[in-house]
Amino acid sequence: MEHRHYLASLFEPRSVAVIGATERPDAVGHFVMRNLLGHSYQGKVFAINPNRDSIHGLLAHPDIESLPSTPEVAIIATPAHTVAELLRACGRKGVKFAVVYSGGFAEIGAAGLDAQRELDAALRDSGVRILGPNGLGTVRPALGYDCSIGHGQVARGNLALVSQSGTLCNAIIDWAKVNRIGFSNIITLGSSLDVDVGEVLDYLINDSQTAGILIYLEGVSHARRFISALRAASRVKPVIAIKVGRHQSGSSAAFSHTGALVGHDEVFDAILRRTGVTRVQNIPELFAAARTLTSRYRECGERVAIVTNGGGPGALAADRAADLQLTLPALNHRTLERLDQFLPRDWSRANPVDINGDATPERFRDAVAACLEDDEIDGVLVILTPQGMTAPTQVAQALVELADRHAKPILCCWMGGETVREGRLRLMEARIPVFQYPETLVGGYHCLLTHRKNQQLLLQMPAPTPDRASPDLERARALIAEVRADGRSALNQQEAMALLAAFHIPVPQAGIVQRVDAAIELAEKIGYPVAMKIHSPDIDHKSEVGGIALNLRTAAELVASYWQMMRDIPKRLPDARLDGVLITAMATRPRARELLVGVTTDPIFGPVISLGTGGIWVEAYDHHAVALPPLNEELALDLIRNVRFSHLLGAHRRFPAISQSALATVLIRVSELVEEFPEIAELDINPLLVDEQGTIAVDARVYLREPAIQCDPYDHLAICPYPKHLIRTWQLRDGTQVTVRPIRPKDAEMEQNFVRNLSDRSRYLRFWSGLSELNRRMLAEFTKIDYGTRMSLIVTLEQDGQEIEIAVAQFSTTATGQSCEFAIVVADGWQGQGLGGKLMAYLIEIARCRGYRSIEGEVLSENRDMLNLMRALGFKVEIDPEDLSVRRVVKNLLEPDPPRRGPASA
């Protein structure tokens, strides 16, 4: 059964009340009333103003409680100090949503704190959800609904615009009008005190009028909900984002190299890539990306051909392609022979393909067709300049016919104005991307390529790898506990290396000694050559104070270096504590690259993994890339490819290519480390030596923090890893052993078979319809989950050498974020084994651990077995007032479970 999204009342209201309605031309209430009444909105509009009898021809009411009926939305356009009491009045009237334009709260600093506190209290008291404050409203052109304060009517289209800045939103709307771009929704979030970008994205996912989503972002408050919503949205629709603040510095309290180098915007960029979102830097790029990603094309490669009837525009496009690292390959011999047949004799026989200013529609068509059929070409960029003999409309029609026969993308640039207008419209009607300038043409193609790459990252869901040795968690926990018991926040080098070794990261043999004779004894045990480093909690950068001696080959060299350190360091740092020296095996890898692998903690998104240049040049070059845990091999390799010096990791002069798989393994191990230990604040492995044979961590630093109390072991991560701690083995009443575990994306086929094999009645009781199998969207929704805002447990067993699914239970966070909604179904042949009761009890346990206040669901009244189970588990069962055939079941998770009176049968 399809339900109206809970935010539909906010963005598609059937009735609206404007509190602060007025005819005063400089007031917000005037603009809102003008737009609501002037754009063919068919819903009911109420004007509220205690000082007027009528406003814009409507009867004016003194307050919201005097209205003859309850509006779906209240629009509040009054000063900040009045908003709190108005929200309480809306709550008493039964209004569910309000749009608050008023500014003057926490965003203005101390002067607005009293008003902010009152607003916060009113939100708790009233139960009203608000959009804003300090926003500029919403627009739904298809309904004629416009509660914004913009000028003029917004054109109808299939793009949704979500903006945290109202003023920039108005600028984008004006730009879109000039460029004839329409919208399905325009939503300004303001301060996002309540309804936030994550919830809005969730609404837009299922909005049939929205084909693509444009987002302007300034900041994020609910990291996991934001990421979850981005992932869900970009699976089904292209999402394109502008994020401001690209050059803000990171945390000033960083202890390690990584913490000093990684900025917040880099983290945000990594998140957008990981969630399948395409990022752009300005408004023209925003719409260029939208034009491409809402076209007929989704797949493309990096190799492009440029076909142009003007040499200059072709050169501009080629330069921009080089900037964006697109490849313009040489055309193969067969393609050149085809082109020779109809191009002028003196043509360049190169890519870009200049077909001359006198090119006919047939010449355009044949040149583009030849390039499309070249195996070395992934897509064709066509540039038309309006010259005297050019026929822009006929060329466009020829390309439309070509596009219908070829899967490779064709993107066009029709330069000029009125002369090419009709041809441009013809291409747009055929959903072929068309641009005005060569640079934006190439940028549009690059967006298509970026989108494809990011969609591949989106599909990555790291899960346990059976062929990789498990880390020694017990050893690691004991080590960290010992450091904390000592009252320290930093591990010494020996402890840091031992922690890495517990996660199977290769480290040299090492030990700490306090005397020179012990140093000699240890060096002989390890074997020369060795390295010696000063051991002090007060010295971070040992090389800067003469605290490192390398390649010591004899006891005499070791003794001389030891006494030099003990003599020189106190002169430079008289207050530093010297607790001895660390002796390590000398890592002799002459062909290795020195890298840094680090971890820092972003204040919003939590742990971040960084890969960059290592050794003494780390600050000088600052070449690094970042990713968020959890990582798998594909995500780790993508991180390696994204560092600017990645080409130096391949074969280079006398250096063979490094083992990328070995480096990827280290990155995955570091990811596992921060997943398991939320107390890791910062970590540096520097240098990590990497060559063709593998890796070895030469030095490491680890800093701890006081971990937050968390029930779920992965609450500190913005992206929840596969929750392997939830895997259980159960025994059913008949003795059958089954496994209950969180679902994975690769379970899609098994989930589909499970639904297909249900009886018609079981499918009806679960889905309230006669569907026989899950459609593509439903299958993705059920199997590609984030494990944070949504959880799905399946019960499986082995049968004839195959894993089969016999039950599934799931919950997802509701609109309030305080409760979750469940669904459960057991295969017909396995009902009566108590499986439904065990699954529901387990769901309740997980939901309670995650801090939900309640768990709820809807059950058909004829499903008596399920209703009996709900009562046995302590759920309250009530008739749904909107559908008498449905029962709402709700369990308060803050109350203890009732004693079980007998076995539940489901």
Tell me what you see in this structure.
With 906 residues, this protein is α/β, with parallel strands linked by helices. Among the domains are: 1-149, NAD(P)-binding Rossmann-like Domain (Rossmann fold); 154-295, Succinyl-CoA synthetase domains (Rossmann fold), CATH 3.40.50; 298-432, Succinyl-CoA synthetase domains (Rossmann fold), CATH 3.40.50; 724-892, Gcn5-related N-acetyltransferase (GNAT) (Aminopeptidase). It contains 28 helices and 38 strands. Strands 31-32-33-34-35-36-38-37 form an eight-stranded mixed sheet, with helices on both faces. A seven-stranded mixed sheet has the order 3-4-2-1-5-6-7, with helices on both faces. α4 (113-126) links the parallel β6 and β7 (129-131). The longest helix has 21 residues, at 438-458. The radius of gyration is 32 Å and the shape is globular. The two termini are 22 Å apart. Mean pLDDT is 89; it is low at 248-262 and 902-906.
